[in-house]
């Protein structure tokens, strides 16, 4: 009997071990499958982009000279349109820049007395959005700066530190909540179950704070002390203004060569392109940070957590309802640029895929009618519709135009690699047998160069204190290569969208 019992126990133990081993193998298989799926999702876009370049370059090597000439002409003309639109935006930005300087001069002459008395100012909720594991080293510094340096009546201002974290971070979190005891206008909110900036903001929009306006800042920003006042004055001066987007300036331009080039790029974008586009096409856009919204509109729209660039999506949804967005160059804020190529690559890939998402979603604004317009008698005119076409379709298509032109040049190097300076010169200008082709292409080439030089010259006139003329010269020299690099990132973003890549990679801060 005893032997039988012992035998029974052995069988039971063997059965339990078998089940445990089976379960363990199942979870190992699941883990391996998950890793394989993640690997495929991560590297499939890379394979698609490489295949695109290899196929395109090889295709051009087999084309006849006549067909290559046609392609060359098409790419030069389309790139000339893009360059021409860019320089036109730059020239259109001159007036907003002059007006911004004029307003500052007038305020200075009056001893920095703003038009609106303190008692008549709007109530402002200023939000600093943070993801703590990534921004734990800078959040206290930015919060204390905002609480102490922003020049706005304390009874009209609330600084909201809005953060999420997957695990407790002490003593930092306790120190953050301690700010509420030290500063009467501080509010610290840890958002439960949040995994993104959109979740943080949407949670805040459910709170009844009694504010008239909401300002959104990423955690790495230092708002200029007078920025909130400048923005609020714009809302008071024009009751139909729904959004005020300020100028973002990179202040760590001296850290690395990459950050210096990004600083020049941001001056070009925020001081030239954005105000110029708003003047040319008749609409502006919220850009994610240093933006001021009317509270009612922002709470109504909220943020779409399914979008990688929820800020651009919200800006386009606001425009689809006829919102009025103005770009104010006096509403300045200082932010950090990525200092490593890896951080830059992750940031711009997320932006590229996010823009692709937003472009596909909102391209219908080219032809549809505004739904639930915010203002009476609003209609989307031809200029605004063409501006949307340029922003969402032509801009996304430009990635292919630039890279196809690059592939064409690579095919020349493969088939006709220059052995002397004279041959290189001939290759650059591509001496076609037909003289009219040569004349037209050279003319377009020269105009593209003139457009780019003019844009960068205007950028030099409005550069920030953290950008030197040397930086702009270096930016100009490497700009053609930078355009190609950004086009590659754009293609990569499209490839990620094709495979439904959904990982969110926050920009590294330190």
TrEMBL record:
Gene Ontology cellular component annotations, sorted alphabetically: membrane
GO biological process, one term: proteolysis
Key word DNA-binding present: no
Topological relation to the membrane, as annotated: Multi-pass membrane protein
One Pfam assignment: Glyco_trans_2_3
Major site of localization recorded for this protein: membrane
Lineage top rank: taxon: Eukaryota
Single Gene Ontology MF annotation: glycosyltransferase activity
Domain Glycosyltransferase 2-like: start-end pairs: 214-408
Alphabetized SUPFAM superfamilies for the sequence: Nucleotide-diphospho-sugar transferases
Residues annotated as transmembrane: 43-62, 68-92, 471-495
Keywords, alphabetical: Glycosyltransferase, Membrane, Transferase, Transmembrane, Transmembrane helix
Coiled coil: none
Location of this chain's protein in the cell: Membrane
Protein name: Glycosyltransferase family 2 protein
Species of provenance: Aaosphaeria arxii CBS 175.79
């Amino acid at each position: 009997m005893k032997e039988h019992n012992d035998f029974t126990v052995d069988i039971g133990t063997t059965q339990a071990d078998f089940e445990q081993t089976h379960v363990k193998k199942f979870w190992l298989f699941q883990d391996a499958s998950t890793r394989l799926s993640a690997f495929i999702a991560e590297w499939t876009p890379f394979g698609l982009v490489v295949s695109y370049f290899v196929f395109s370059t090889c295709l051009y090597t087999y084309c006849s000279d006549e067909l290559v000439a046609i392609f060359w002409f098409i790419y030069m003309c389309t790139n000339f349109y893009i360059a021409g639109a860019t320089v036109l935006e730059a020239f259109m930005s001159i007036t907003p820049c002059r007006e911004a300087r004029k307003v500052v001069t007038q305020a200075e002459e009056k001893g920095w007395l703003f038009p609106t008395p303190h008692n008549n100012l709007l109530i402002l909720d200023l939000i600093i959005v943070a993801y703590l594991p990534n921004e734990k080293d800078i959040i206290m510094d930015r919060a204390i700066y905002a609480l102490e340096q922003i020049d706005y009546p304390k009874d009209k201002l609330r600084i909201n530190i809005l953060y999420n974290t997957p695990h407790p971070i002490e003593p930092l979190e306790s120190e953050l909540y301690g700010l509420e005891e030290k500063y009467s206008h501080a509010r610290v909110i840890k958002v439960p179950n949040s995994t993104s900036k959109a979740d943080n903001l949407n949670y805040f929009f459910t709170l009844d704070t009694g504010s008239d306006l909401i300002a959104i800042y990423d955690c790495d920003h230092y708002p200029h002390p007078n920025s909130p006042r400048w923005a609020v004055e714009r809302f008071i001066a024009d009751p139909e203004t729904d959004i005020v987007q300020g100028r973002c300036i990179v202040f760590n331009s001296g850290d690395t060569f990459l950050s210096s080039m990004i600083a020049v790029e941001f001056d070009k974008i925020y001081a030239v392109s954005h105000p110029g586009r708003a003047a040319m096409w008749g609409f502006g856009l919220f850009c994610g940070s240093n933006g001021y919204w009317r509270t009612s509109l922002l709470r109504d729209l909220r943020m779409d957590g399914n979008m990688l660039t929820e800020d651009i999506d919200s800006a386009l949804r606001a425009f689809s309802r006829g919102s009025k967005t103005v770009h104010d160059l006096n509403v300045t804020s200082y932010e950090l640029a990525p200092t490593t190529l890896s951080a830059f690559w992750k940031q711009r890939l997320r932006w590229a895929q996010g823009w692709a998402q937003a472009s596909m979603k909102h391209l219908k604004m080219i032809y549809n009618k505004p739904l639930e317009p915010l203002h009476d008698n609003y209609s989307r005119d031809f200029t605004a519709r063409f501006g949307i076409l340029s922003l969402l379709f032509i801009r996304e298509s430009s990635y292919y135009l630039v890279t196809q032109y690059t592939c064409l040049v690579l095919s020349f190097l493969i088939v006709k690699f220059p052995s002397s300076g004279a041959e290189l010169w001939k290759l650059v200008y591509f001496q076609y047998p037909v003289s009219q082709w040569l004349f037209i292409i050279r003319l377009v080439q020269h105009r593209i160069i003139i457009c780019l030089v003019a844009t960068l010259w205007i950028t030099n006139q409005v550069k920030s204190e953290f950008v030197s003329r040397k930086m702009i010269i270096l930016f100009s020299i490497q700009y053609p290569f930078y355009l190609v690099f950004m086009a590659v990132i754009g293609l990569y973003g499209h490839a990620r969208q094709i495979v439904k890549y959904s990982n969110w990679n926050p920009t590294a801060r330190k």
